[in-house]
Protein 1
Amino acid sequence: MPYIKIEVTREGVTREQKQDLIKGVTDLITRVLNKDPQLTHVVIQEIELDDWGYAGEQVSVLREKGITAEKK
Amino acid sequence: MPYIKIEVTREGVTREQKQDLIKGVTDLITRVLNKDPQLTHVVIQEIELDDWGYAGEQVSVLREKGITAEKK
Amino acid sequence: MPYIKIEVTREGVTREQKQDLIKGVTDLITRVLNKDPQLTHVVIQEIELDDWGYAGEQVSVLREKGITAEKK
Amino acid sequence: MPYIKIEVTREGVTREQKQDLIKGVTDLITRVLNKDPQLTHVVIQEIELDDWGYAGEQVSVLREKGITAEKK
Amino acid sequence: MPYIKIEVTREGVTREQKQDLIKGVTDLITRVLNKDPQLTHVVIQEIELDDWGYAGEQVSVLREKGITAEKK
Amino acid sequence: MPYIKIEVTREGVTREQKQDLIKGVTDLITRVLNKDPQLTHVVIQEIELDDWGYAGEQVSVLREKGITAEKK
């Protein structure tokens, strides 16, 4: 009976990326824990840049300064 | 001091249904646990169909295939 | 596809009370939203009294002062 | 590795107030727990007045009755 | 800045399985969203069988009846 | 009607530190948003080191390697 919540900043996540996340997490849970996918729910929640804080600063401010969350 | 979060897919839940959920959950908590309703908070969060995954698929895709979550 | 999280202070909630909460919430969701119970998950999380704060005070401290959360 | 979620009713919280909350919570965590701010994430979630229930009533209804959540 | 919460029933999940979940989810987020793993936090929460309800019944009761969540 | 959840790793947080967090967050919310403290609930959730993942690794493994979350 797994439930997974994914919180990410709202920065242009596409419908296809969301489907990849849902499929990927469900497959992972099935493979690692042998859980029935019919019992696995995944919820994605996009958070506005003003509403996420990191190291004491709003992500919207960090982005204005040119600081991204991208993998280098 | 109960706090209850209800997550449902965003599919036309009306203001009256939300009030019924809030009233119903609060009454249930009061009846079963004898808690003061003044200390009970209920939060409803509607989730877009692209953002909820079930059995590895987006609910928006399931709905396009005609699969609903309705009680049979 | 509802998911419901119930957070309450850990103060002797019995197995039967938990079953009543689970049954009651699921029935409520089914009745108000016409959702398939097979798609409804309820999670109860008990919180230690030191870990819940209300009005700026730990509930453990409030209880020591004789302040309860019971319905009057 | 702290993660903090702040849920408030959506009633005109400004960008500056959000920044104050993010900064204030991060500073508090750093001061009390000596945590690296680079590992502290804060997420603010605003909840519509129809979606928050208190004492069994929607906050939107409470507001229509003139009942606020303001500090007296 | 992703944050992922995984809730599963407490049924003998090993340390190695938890590591596989953490590694797998972080890799997935990195691959699909191109996020810096240094900004990705994953939290696993195990839920007692009395505290998870499915279709209106406690999972502990379902297990006593021989109903599992295993993939067929 | 604010509700705040604080998730931290379980690494010897004392009762006094928890009280400081509860008091500090409640005061912050009252000061920034002018909310009645009687409507503010704070929940602290401590997470085992095996259950928190950062950058794809369990925090318990990071700690064994001598990597802490302390402010430098």
Protein 2
Amino acid sequence: MAEFRFCVSVMPKPGILDPQGRAVEGSLPYLGVDSVSSVRIGRRVELTVEAATESGARTIVERLADDLLANPLIEAWTAEAIV
Amino acid sequence: MAEFRFCVSVMPKPGILDPQGRAVEGSLPYLGVDSVSSVRIGRRVELTVEAATESGARTIVERLADDLLANPLIEAWTAEAIV
């Protein structure tokens, strides 16, 4: 068995309200920044999986992302191995 | 002026308590998963910057990350351009 480190990025789906992103955009004028737009804020989950192969580890990560880490109604996720 | 899309990853620093990561780890047994460990949860911020050059855009992103997006006492950030 080997250990694989993965990152799961969970972002609000397009069209879904993103209050954290709006809050950041609302703060920009107070910082004198007028060149930043389309702020979206999601979660970054890093985890270690023990498995025989990377593809086996990825299967576990994908199941966790679907069942635990993201709400599929409002969030989309991507998973990538971290080297 | 051109538009550049960046991603800022904000993660709890090593040694800093990560209650969300602990909560996920605590849920794993109920999903029958015993091969996942070292879960760390942070934020992923995506934003668009209007600037003359990518390096100019990166300077703005780095200032925002330092001043607004991350708490430097407990969080570390990295920024990368999204193609």
